[in-house]
Backbone:
């Protein structure tokens, strides 16, 4: 960044990523705003191809390119500082057994200043995270159930394209969606039986999803919220939990303590940006990559909670 000294950062964004101060902030000069737009576009390219851990921050900054202000510039500088601090990280692709596709899909309710939600999704194939999506939802919703439903609908075109693409390559694989909202699952499975007057505007969407489920094109299972890997692409997670989810998404071996909660309390002034041997503790999560099933992917988070069946 010209004339800017980047400060090392251990996370792509703070908890205030989605906060926008209207009327009390200074807009960027035209030249600086053009540079902001250019840098964000380049970061989007990097995020989609090599560093999905920055997609959430880039997704928000993309919504600010028309009229960026000083706060947006600071958020961009922090993101660049994070990339500088973690320049050794990259997405690693592998394929040990291609048996099915599993999508972890999540929606964050009213995340943005206009009360719209954030959709996020990760696809695992061959025990490896290969596709990622993080975007602002295009409609406002009145509940988290609707937000989760819109998130699934946002990802469906990519889900179906992936199925058809690999079918042409000779791979007829089952597609499984992992969702952590039981009300959304019931709505998808039961259709109008689980809907009410407040869901009329979603009729077309949920009937389309229900049709795909009834025809066996998709399957959906409940996922414990603590095991929802797509949280990484919808929420500004901090601390060790961010490093754990980042290493799962980037398909890296994780060396760190088993987590029981997500917070910033474990952060200290020491450098926690790199994953070196000094980060190992007595309680180490073993590398299960060779025998990893989709359940194994969830277990890497160290949060092995029993998933209960959803009553239809």
Residues:
């Amino acid at each position: 960044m010209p004339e800017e000294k980047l400060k090392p950062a251990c996370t792509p964004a703070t908890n205030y990523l989605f906060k926008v101060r209207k009327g009390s902030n200074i807009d960027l000069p035209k030249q600086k705003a053009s540079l902001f737009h250019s840098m964000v576009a380049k970061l989007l390219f990097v995020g989609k191809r090599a560093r999905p851990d920055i997609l959430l921050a880039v997704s928000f900054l993309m919504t600010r390119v028309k009229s960026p202000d000083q706060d947006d510039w600071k958020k961009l500088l922090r993101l660049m500082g994070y990339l500088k601090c973690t320049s050794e990280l990259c997405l690693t692709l592998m394929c040990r057994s291609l048996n099915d596709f599993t999508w972890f899909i999540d929606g964050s309710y009213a995340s943005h200043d206009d009360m719209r939600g954030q959709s996020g999704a990760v696809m695992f194939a061959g025990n490896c995270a290969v596709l990622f999506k993080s975007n602002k939802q295009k409609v406002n919703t009145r509940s988290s159930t609707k937000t989760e439903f819109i998130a699934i609908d946002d990802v469906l075109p990519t889900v179906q394209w992936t199925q058809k693409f690999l079918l042409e390559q000779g791979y007829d694989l089952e597609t499984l969606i992992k969702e952590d909202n039981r009300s959304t699952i019931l709505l998808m499975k039961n259709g109008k039986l689980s809907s009410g007057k407040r869901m009329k505007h979603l009729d077309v969407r949920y009937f389309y999803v229900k049709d795909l489920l009834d025809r066996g094109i998709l399957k959906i299972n409940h996922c414990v919220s603590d095991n929802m890997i797509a949280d990484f692409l919808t929420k500004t997670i901090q601390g060790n939990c961010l490093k754990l989810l980042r290493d799962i998404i980037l398909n890296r071996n994780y060396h760190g303590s088993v987590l029981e909660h997500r917070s910033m309390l474990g952060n200290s002034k020491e450098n926690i940006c790199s994953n070196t041997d000094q980060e190992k503790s007595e309680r180490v999560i073993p590398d299960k990559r060779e025998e990893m099933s989709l359940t194994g992917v969830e277990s890497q988070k160290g949060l092995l909670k029993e998933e209960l069946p959803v009553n239809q």
Notes: Residues 254-308 have pLDDT under 50 and may be disordered. The chain is about 35% helix and 15% strand. Strands lie at 100-108, 116-125, 129-140, 174-179, 219-222. The CA atoms of residues 145 and 190 lie 14 Å apart.
